[in-house]
Every structure is written in structure tokens, then in C-alpha cells.
Write a structure and sequence with these properties.
Length: 310
């Protein structure tokens, strides 16, 4: 799959500025500079580049013109400094991490503790965004927290008190992929409420920026499309090539069947749609969550609205 240089392309594509010398957005098949080659041949750098592009778009959104211009100039200065790293991948990673920290939206936190449990959740707040956007994020997190607290209270009310380690709930949200109409917030964490082990929390929030409301995964697709069948076919093909620690074909077939409950965790990104299968869905717990990236070129005809960043 062809990778693109996201951070520079985001700057140039959104603000319509002429290319900086040696820093134009590019197709990795045509990479020519040491920086371009380093990013195109390093999956970690490419991922950092994609994250930075998303953070930059989110930081630009909703700001007044003077602030957008200041942000553009700061991004230009950062690009120039990054390019001075040349092929030094350690230097490039440090520059990306520093810029990500500078562009990261402010965060809100929830903490709570009680008899036999601890809870912590954090999530981004978007400066310059409509209050309805931040309210939707806050309500989404509160729903996740309330669910854990309700389960905890129910268990604590049982005649026999819980044994073993204290229960815990940890959830952290990061701003992800963004388009003109969509903001993805990637929530990940861990929940333990007794038993042999806890469960990872994977809860992508898809926010429709035109309505400030969370989207059901089905809303990403045309109502007349066979999107479940297409995702199922691609998922089965990808999983068939993996070592899933003893999961047989029936297990995989059932977990990828084209029914909506199997496709609730969909994560749009810069290069495609990632389907997330939680532990036990298609393989044993030890195999972990399984992620299948489906390039947009394979599903563009199914989408209700474009999901590539402009």
C-alpha cells in the first residue's frame, strides 16, 4: 500500500500555501529527499506523521483567522526544523513527539474511587470548537463511566463481598482522524471487575461535526450498500493469514459474519478503515484484539460521505 506524507500534505492542502523547498506533500513511490525516504520506510514515523496531520487539522478548526495564521507559521518553522534532521530517525521521532505535545488539545479528567474499585478517565477538549462538540465527548465518556459504576454497585450489593484484586477502569481518549465533517476520538483502556483477567476497552467515538452527535458505525455507509458483506470478506481474508493461536475457521467465520454486532468498532484513519475485533470475537484472549485495515479504495463506493482528509 502506498504511504503518503501526511503532516506536510495537511499543512499545504488545508491552507493552500506554496510548497516549502524539500517539504511538499508527496507520494512515497516518488520520495526523493532523505527525510521522505526515512518516513516512507519506517512505519512508526509514518504513523507519527499521520497523527500529527490529524492534530494539526483539529488545532486549526474553529480558530479565528489570526490564530490560524500563527499556527500555520509555527507549523512551517517546525517543518524546516524537522527537515534538518535528514535521515536521522531518532531526531525525526523527537521532533514529531515534541510537535504532537505542542498541538495536543487540552485534556479533561475524571477520577473516582470507592470500596474495592478505582476509576480514571481522560479525554481531549477541542479549543475553538463549538461547545456542543466538547459536550458530546464529555457525555460519551460519562456514559462509559456510568456503565462501570452501575456494574460495580450491582456486584457490591451481592450477599458475598468480592474477592481478589480491586476492580479498575481506565479509559484514555486521543484525537484521531479528522475530515470536514468527521472527528474520530480513539478511546482505549482496560477494565477489570473480577475473574481471571480484565478486558481491554476499545471504544472509538465517531463525531459528526455537522450535528455534534455520535455516529453509529452503519451511518458511515450508504443505506443501500452491502457494506457488512464487503467488510466481512476483507476481514476474513486478512485473518486467514494470521496465527490466531488455535482459532478454527468456524470461530473466525462466526466472528466476522456480516451482522452489525460484529462491526461496532470501526476506526476511520488517514489511509483506510480499521475494523477492530475484541478479544474472543475471532480468537482466544491471548491473541488480543485483532485489527484489519481496509484501504478506502476498496470501500469508496459504499461510503455515505468521503472519509479521506481533504
Amino acid at each position: 500500500m502506498t504511504m503518503t506524507h501526511h503532516a506536510t500534505a495537511a499543512l499545504l492542502g488545508i491552507v493552500l500555501l506554496p510548497p516549502l523547498a524539500g517539504a511538499a506533500g508527496f507520494d512515497c513511490d516518488r520520495a526523493s529527499t532523505p527525510v521522505e525516504h526515512a518516513i516512507c520506510t519506517d512505519t512508526e514515523l509514518d504513523a507519527l506523521d499521520a497523527r500529527l496531520a490529524d492534530h494539526y487539522r483539529a488545532a486549526q478548526a474553529g480558530r479565528p483567522p489570526a490564530e490560524r495564521e500563527a499556527l500555520r507559521q509555527a507549523q512551517r518553522r517546525w517543518l524546516a526544523a524537522r527537515n534538518r534532521c535528514g535521515p536521522d530517525r531518532t531526531c525525526l521521532r523527537e521532533h514529531y513527539q515534541q510537535r504532537l505535545e505542542a498541538l495536543a488539545p487540552p485534556r479533561a479528567q475524571l477520577t473516582h474511587s470507592g470500596p474495592h474499585y478505582q476509576l480514571e478517565a481522560s479525554y481531549p477538549r477541542f479549543a475553538g470548537a463549538a461547545e456542543a462538540i466538547n459536550r458530546a465527548v464529555r457525555e460519551y465518556v460519562q456514559d462509559q463511566v456510568d456503565g462501570f459504576l452501575a456494574r460495580t454497585e450491582e456486584r457490591l450489593a451481592e450477599p458475598e463481598p468480592p474477592l481478589g484484586p480491586a476492580w479498575s477502569f481506565a479509559l484514555e481518549g486521543e484525537a484521531g482522524h479528522r475530515t470536514e465533517w468527521l472527528q474520530v476520538i480513539v478511546f482505549e483502556g482496560y477494565e477489570y471487575d473480577g475473574g481471571a483477567h480484565g478486558m481491554p476497552l476499545l471504544a472509538p467515538l465517531l463525531l459528526d461535526l455537522t450535528t455534534a452527535r455520535p455516529l453509529d458505525p452503519a451511518a458511515l455507509f450508504r443505506t443501500d450498500s452491502a457494506w457488512l458483506q464487503r467488510l466481512a470478506r476483507h476481514s476474513r481474508a486478512a485473518l486467514a493469514e494470521r496465527d490466531l493461536l488455535g482459532a478454527d475457521s468456524d470461530w473466525i467465520h462466526q466472528g466476522t459474519a456480516p451482522v452489525s454486532e460484529n462491526y461496532q468498532w470501526l476506526l476511520p484513519g488517514p489511509d483506510g478503515l480499521t475494523v477492530i475485533f475484541p478479544p474472543y470475537a475471532v480468537a482466544p484472549y491471548a491473541a488480543g484484539a485483532q485489527r484489519v485495515l481496509i484501504p478506502y479504495g476498496e470501500i469508496d463506493d459504499l461510503l455515505a460521505r468521503p472519509m479521506r482528509a481533504d
